Amino acid sequence: MKIALIAHDRMKEQIVQLAMAYESILAKHDLYATGTTGSRIMEATSLSLTRFLSGPLGGDQQIGAMIARNEMDLIIFLRDPLTSQPHEPDIIALLRLCDVHKIPFATNLGSAEIMLKALELGQLDWREVVHKENEA
C-alpha cells in the first residue's frame, strides 16, 4: 500500500509519535510525506519515505496528483482544527479527491490509529481490487 503522512505544524509531534508507535506496520508499505513532516518522521524512526514539498508550497497538490492517478491507498493527515490554514483550499481538494477515488482519509489521531490497525489486519486489501479495476 502507498500511504501519505501529512501534519499541520501543531500536529507534527503527534504524527511522529504515531509513526513511532506503528513503525512495524508502516515499514511494510510505501510511505510518502510532505516536507518537514517527512524529515521529522525519518529522524525519529528507521522508516524510509519519499518526501514532497511542504504542504503550503505544493506538497498537498503533489500528493493530490498521486490520488488522481489512483496511486495512493491511504492518507493520514493530522489537521489542526483550531488554526486557520492559508492553503485550506488545497486541503479541501485533497479530501474531495479521496472521496472521488475511494481512498481512506484519517484526519486525527483516533481515526489514524483505526486505519493503521485495519491495515495490519488486512481490512484495506480491497484497495487492490480498486487498482485492478482501474487497470482494466
UniProtKB/TrEMBL annotation:
Active site (UniProt): D60 (proton donor/acceptor)
Catalysed reactions, semicolon-separated: dihydroxyacetone phosphate = methylglyoxal + phosphate
GO molecular function: methylglyoxal synthase activity
Protein's organism: Brevibacillus formosus
Signal peptide residues on this chain, from the entry's feature table: none
Taxonomic lineage: Bacteria, Bacillati, Bacillota, Bacilli, Bacillales
Protein name, UniProt field: Methylglyoxal synthase
Similarity comment: Belongs to the methylglyoxal synthase family.
UniProt keyword list: Lyase
Positions that bind substrate: H8, K12, T34, G35, T36, T37, S54, G55, H87
Enzyme Commission code(s) on record: 4.2.3.3
Residue span, MGS-like domain: 1-136
Record bears the keyword Lyase: yes
Pfam families recorded: MGS (PF02142)
Key word Cell membrane present: no
EC class of the enzyme, as a word: lyase
Record gene name: mgsA
GO CC, alphabetical: cytosol
GO biological process, alphabetically ordered: methylglyoxal biosynthetic process
